[in-house]
């Protein structure tokens, strides 16, 4: 309103209102007016008005503003004036905006101000820094050759402020054109000497807490011997002063003193030409490695990394190896530990490579996650670069994969394979070592990759290794025959291995037989037949447990045991008689191949000796076989087609693996199961019910059937088992749900409170949660301790393993003791899993 009113505003009022607008803008509000009034203030001859105008322009007016031409004209007018205050205000505005348009319009005027003898020191300082700002916006603002000599000679100016400002400008110009400004080196060394040496008093007022504050150049060592000697004397003086007792206990004094020292050491490293200076610098830094100040330890490690790269100071740095290793293990600050790793990497050579690599591997097991990947690369490079014995290199890389497999990039394990392929002397050792590494219960994927490749190429080298047992060599021969199926292009190479005398004429009969049979199999069979014979093994190979076999010998004879033991029971069926009145049971028995009894050996009913009772076969049980010709009796099936009365027993299996699933007057069905991640083995045992006759009780015969089950994806309904049999000439049928539930494929997952509730909150989408509230009747649950802030609550976590994926599941149980109620909440990444687990748990309360 004031700006648009009829009343003309004087300079003071304009300044006041523009200043208020500037304050409003700094509070965060947008200002879209008052710009022209601020430009008008630039033409005022009063300092305060011009100052507010330039301040407003610097803060609110952008380089692309339409008013910029007016602003540039006002700046040009002030630069041409003889008032140093106005010139300084104009220079400050240029330095703040620093646009290319300004550089093009005013760039030629600034160097004139900088080198003019009439310009006061304060304006020279501002001109140097303004020119530096314009140089960054427009690199060609200073023409080559025209101003070079005069700008360089600013280093001889008596005013230290002018010298430091000119130094910043010269530093930028040097990087752009080193040859053009090479003449500044001798002047810089001379000025440095005058600052450091106490015999000169003209610049001793430029000190900070008793420490002269020198600046240093970016050039290589001077070629002029006299200049070089003078520079060396300066650096020696700084190192000598670092050893002197402090002149003040204040922290500013030590900070300034150390800042100068580290700059001097950086220059010594940059020169890299004076062995004496480099060693002295290394010794000085060594004193800082155990300093109480973390920053000094960090800077010392960082500078020593540079010293370690010099041939003159490398050995001096190595003397501090133990101190650096201690720092790696004990430092609390991860950035300092990072610098310690860098220094160990820099100081490593053939003489200490094994020790340093060993220490880095040891630390890698507990290293901060942010530096693991870099450490892995450093260890791999050192092991390859300084490996004298390449068996050591193989050991290092395999240990690296074992300790930090997730951080081992493809380049690392590619490289170890390349080296093993190129070096014949290490191939056998690598095959042996990687084979042993693959025997570990938990083996990283990268280890499997390396092992698969190396064994595929050089497995034959350890197949005949006398250090390998016959069992191991036999396993490798089996590996080779499978390789023929998987990689037909190497068939000829593998056949050459099988034909070798070491295999075909091996004194070990097993190895000889395998070699002969595998060779014939690969020679005479077609690809289709070979693929069928060598198809993938089932997840749970059936094998006889020696402990279980011993246990069976102590048990009464059953149908299954009789078939396995193969004693006098050689008949295809066994008859068990319960007496003259009792029914007889005839069960077809197939001897198990390979011992299906590895599935826990289901508890047997006591059995009477087999006899050839004359009751014929009035009770015939054909388990899992063809149905009888007549339709089976379906009495007792519910609406869902399942046998009634089995539901209660089924619920008991939710939290246990073994027990009786169904029982009636004719038959008892028992179940025993094993689970591992997404795989299961379920044994179903069928027994006839014994019938007591007078003083004798005859045991029922038994038969067992094994099922291998794999959880492919999440499911809600259990698989159904149909059993058809004939009893008393009448067919019967029993349909039951197998006790295979989704929770059987769960594996407990450990996590802390933060991780639990982070995932708990993440699983809050519709369908990912299922909640139940029910009466407390009793419970039994595996819980995570100390997770929920309410100690009365129970929480647990698990992973559901399926072939296709792994599904996370979180459970929270919250009691209400007053109401004797429980609230159960289940969250999962799959809505069906949450519903199913919730329903299963509800049945247990």
Automatic annotation (TrEMBL):
<dbReference type="GO" id="GO:0006897">
    <property type="term" value="P:endocytosis"/>
</dbReference>
<dbReference type="InterPro" id="IPR002553">
    <property type="entry name" value="Clathrin/coatomer_adapt-like_N"/>
</dbReference>
<feature type="binding site">
    <location>
        <begin position="16"/>
        <end position="20"/>
    </location>
    <ligand>
        <name>a 1,2-diacyl-sn-glycero-3-phospho-(1D-myo-inositol-3,4,5-trisphosphate)</name>
    </ligand>
</feature>
<dbReference type="Pfam" id="PF02296">
    <property type="entry name" value="Alpha_adaptin_C"/>
</dbReference>
<dbReference type="InterPro" id="IPR050840">
    <property type="entry name" value="Adaptor_Complx_Large_Subunit"/>
</dbReference>
<feature type="domain" description="Clathrin adaptor alpha/beta/gamma-adaptin appendage Ig-like subdomain">
    <location>
        <begin position="651"/>
        <end position="739"/>
    </location>
</feature>
<keyword id="KW-0168">Coated pit</keyword>
<feature type="region of interest" description="Disordered">
    <location>
        <begin position="559"/>
        <end position="598"/>
    </location>
</feature>
<dbReference type="InterPro" id="IPR017104">
    <property type="entry name" value="AP2_complex_asu"/>
</dbReference>
<dbReference type="GO" id="GO:0030122">
    <property type="term" value="C:AP-2 adaptor complex"/>
</dbReference>
<feature type="binding site">
    <location>
        <position position="12"/>
    </location>
    <ligand>
        <name>a 1,2-diacyl-sn-glycero-3-phospho-(1D-myo-inositol-3,4,5-trisphosphate)</name>
    </ligand>
</feature>
<dbReference type="InterPro" id="IPR009028">
    <property type="entry name" value="Coatomer/calthrin_app_sub_C"/>
</dbReference>
<keyword id="KW-0653">Protein transport</keyword>
<dbReference type="InterPro" id="IPR013041">
    <property type="entry name" value="Clathrin_app_Ig-like_sf"/>
</dbReference>
<keyword id="KW-0254">Endocytosis</keyword>
<dbReference type="GO" id="GO:0015031">
    <property type="term" value="P:protein transport"/>
</dbReference>
<dbReference type="InterPro" id="IPR016024">
    <property type="entry name" value="ARM-type_fold"/>
</dbReference>
<dbReference type="InterPro" id="IPR012295">
    <property type="entry name" value="TBP_dom_sf"/>
</dbReference>
<keyword id="KW-0813">Transport</keyword>
<protein>
    <recommendedName>
        <fullName>Clathrin adaptor alpha/beta/gamma-adaptin appendage Ig-like subdomain domain-containing protein</fullName>
    </recommendedName>
</protein>
<dbReference type="InterPro" id="IPR008152">
    <property type="entry name" value="Clathrin_a/b/g-adaptin_app_Ig"/>
</dbReference>
<dbReference type="InterPro" id="IPR011989">
    <property type="entry name" value="ARM-like"/>
</dbReference>
<dbReference type="Pfam" id="PF01602">
    <property type="entry name" value="Adaptin_N"/>
</dbReference>
<dbReference type="InterPro" id="IPR003164">
    <property type="entry name" value="Clathrin_a-adaptin_app_sub_C"/>
</dbReference>
<keyword id="KW-0472">Membrane</keyword>
């Amino acid at each position: 309103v004031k700006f648009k009113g009829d009343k003309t505003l004087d300079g003071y009022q304009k300044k006041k209102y523009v200043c208020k607008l500037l304050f409003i803008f700094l509070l965060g509000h947008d200002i879209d007016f008052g710009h022209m009034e601020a430009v008008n203030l630039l033409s005022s001859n009063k300092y305060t008005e011009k100052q507010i105008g330039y301040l407003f322009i610097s803060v609110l007016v952008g380089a692309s503003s339409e008013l910029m031409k007016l602003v540039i004209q006002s700046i040009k007018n002030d630069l041409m004036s003889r008032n140093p205050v106005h010139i300084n205000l104009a220079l400050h505005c240029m330095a703040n905006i620093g646009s290319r348009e300004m550089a093009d319009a005013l760039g030629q005027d600034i160097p004139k101000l900088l080198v003019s003898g009439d310009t006061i020191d304060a304006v020279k300082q501002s001109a140097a820094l303004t020119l530096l700002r314009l140089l960054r916006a427009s690199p060609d603002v200073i023409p080559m050759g025209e101003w070079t000599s005069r700008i360089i000679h600013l280093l001889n100016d008596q005013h230290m402020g002018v010298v430091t400002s000119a130094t910043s400008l010269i530093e930028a110009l040097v990087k752009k054109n080193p040859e053009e400004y090479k003449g500044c080196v001798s002047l810089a060394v001379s000025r440095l000497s005058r600052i450091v040496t106490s015999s000169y008093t003209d610049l001793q007022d430029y000190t900070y807490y008793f420490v002269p504050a020198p600046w240093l150049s970016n050039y290589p060592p001077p070629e002029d011997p006299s200049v070089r000697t003078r520079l060396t004397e300066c650096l020696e003086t700084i190192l000598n002063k670092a050893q002197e007792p402090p002149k003040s206990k204040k922290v500013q004094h030590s900070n300034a003193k150390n800042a100068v020292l580290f700059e001097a050491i950086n220059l010594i490293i940059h020169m890299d030409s004076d062995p004496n200076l480099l060693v002295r610098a290394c010794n000085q830094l060594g004193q800082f490695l155990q300093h109480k100040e973390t920053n000094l330890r960090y800077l010392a490690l960082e500078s020593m990394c540079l010293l370690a790269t010099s041939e003159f100071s490398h050995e001096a740095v190595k003397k501090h190896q133990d101190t650096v290793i201690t720092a790696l293990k004990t430092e609390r600050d991860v950035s300092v530990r990072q610098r310690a790793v860098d220094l160990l990497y820099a100081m490593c050579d053939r003489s200490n490579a094994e020790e340093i690599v060993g220490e880095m591997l040891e630390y890698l097991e507990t290293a901060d996650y942010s530096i693991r990947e870099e450490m892995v690369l450093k260890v791999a490079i050192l092991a390859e670069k300084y490996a004298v014995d390449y068996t050591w290199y193989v050991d290092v890389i395999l240990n690296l994969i074992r300790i930090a497999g997730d951080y081992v990039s493809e380049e690392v394990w590619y490289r170890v394979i390349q080296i093993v392929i190129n070096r014949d002397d290490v191939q056998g050792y690598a095959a042996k070592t990687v084979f042993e590494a693959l025997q570990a219960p938990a083996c990283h994927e990268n280890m499997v990759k390396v092992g698969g490749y190396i064994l595929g190429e050089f497995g034959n080298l350890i197949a005949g290794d006398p250090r390998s047992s016959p069992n191991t060599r036999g396993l490798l021969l089996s590996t080779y025959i499978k390789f023929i199926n998987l990689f037909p292009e190497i068939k000829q190479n593998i056949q050459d291995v099988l034909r070798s005398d070491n295999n075909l004429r091996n004194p070990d009969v097993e190895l000889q037989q395998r070699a002969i049979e595998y060779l014939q199999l690969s020679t005479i069979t077609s690809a289709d037949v070979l693929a069928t014979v060598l198809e993938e093994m089932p997840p749970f190979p059936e094998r006889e447990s020696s402990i279980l076999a011993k246990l069976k010998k102590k048990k009464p004879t059953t149908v299954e045991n009789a078939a396995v033991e193969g004693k006098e029971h050689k008949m295809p069926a066994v008859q068990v008689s319960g007496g003259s009145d009792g029914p007889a049971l005839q069960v077809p028995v197939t001897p198990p191949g390979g011992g299906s009894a590895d599935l826990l050996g289901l508890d047997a009913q006591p059995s009477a000796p087999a006899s050839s009772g004359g009751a014929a076969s009035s009770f015939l049980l054909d388990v899992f076989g063809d149905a009888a010709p007549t339709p089976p009796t379906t009495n007792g099936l519910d609406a869902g087609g399942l046998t009634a009365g089995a539901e209660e027993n089924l619920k008991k299996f939710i939290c246990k693996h073994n027990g009786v699933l169904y029982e009636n007057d004719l038959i008892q069905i028992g179940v025993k199961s094993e689970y591992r991640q997404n795989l299961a083995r379920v044994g179903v045992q069928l027994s006839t019910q014994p019938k007591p006759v007078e003083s004798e009780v005859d045991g029922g015969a038994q038969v067992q059937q094994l099922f291998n089950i794999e959880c492919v994806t999440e499911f809600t309904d259990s698989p159904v088992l149909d059993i058809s049999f004939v009893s008393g000439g009448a067919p019967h049928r029993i349909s039951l749900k197998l006790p295979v539930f989704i929770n059987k494929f769960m594996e407990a997952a450990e996590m802390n409170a933060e991780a639990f509730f982070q995932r708990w909150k993440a699983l809050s989408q519709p369908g990912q949660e299922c909640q139940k509230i029910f009466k407390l009747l009793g419970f039994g649950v595996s819980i995570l301790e100390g997770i929920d802030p309410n100690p009365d609550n129970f929480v647990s976590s698990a992973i559901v393993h399926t072939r296709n994926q792994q599904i996370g599941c979180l459970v929270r149980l919250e009691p209400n003791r007053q109401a004797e109620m429980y609230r159960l909440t289940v969250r999962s990444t799959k809505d069906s899993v949450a519903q199913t687990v919730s329903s299963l748990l509800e049945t247990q309360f």
